Amino acid sequence: MPEHVALPRFVLYAAAGAVGTAGHYAVLAALVWAAWLAPDLASMCGALVGAGINFLLNARLTFRRRATLTAAWRFGVTALAAAAANGLAMALLTRGLRVPWLAAQVLVTALLLTLTFLVNSRWTFRSNPR
């Protein structure tokens, strides 16, 4: 992807991600505050909700593609891997290192934003499939 396209696309990706992250954090907070799940498990649930929101927004706005079945399953694989990484990182930070759950989630979100952008732009929504 040319550099002149990458930055604006990343900004759109981050903006769409902010909407998905709002859904993610709402589910996370509700499950933790209701004492229904531990922060790492609640975060994984929230991540899956956020992923659904992100797929729809990114397909149409960021990558300007139709939400095809191929893109959907690729996004799903990426989202499941990210949700698992999210849960593992949250467990390490909150249980292992005793970082407060909200601070831990902010750190994990920042890391996964960059990683999932790279995967989704190069694989899920690539414009010139081989």
Radius of gyration: 15 Å
Low-confidence stretches: none
The beta-strand count equals 0
Largest sheet: none
Summarize model confidence as the mean pLDDT: 88
- Helix and strand succession? HHHH
N→C terminal distance: 15 Å
Derived structural class:
mainly alpha
Helix content: over 70%
Number of helices: 4
How does this model look, in words?
The protein has 130 residues and is an all-alpha fold. The chain has one domain (3-124). The chain is built from 4 helices and no strands. Helix 2 (39-62) runs antiparallel to helix 3 and helix 3 runs antiparallel to helix 4. The chain starts with a helix and ends in a 6-residue tail after the last helix. 32% of the residues are buried. It is found in: Membrane. The chain crosses the membrane at residues 12-35, 41-59, 71-93, 99-120.
List the helices and strands and how they pair.
Blueprint: H1 3-33, H2 39-62, H3 69-96, H4 101-124
Helix pairs in contact: 1-2, 2-3, 3-4
Transmembrane segments: 12-35, 41-59, 71-93, 99-120
Subcellular location: Membrane
InterPro entries: GtrA_CellWall_Glycosyl (IPR051401), GtrA_DPMS_TM (IPR007267)
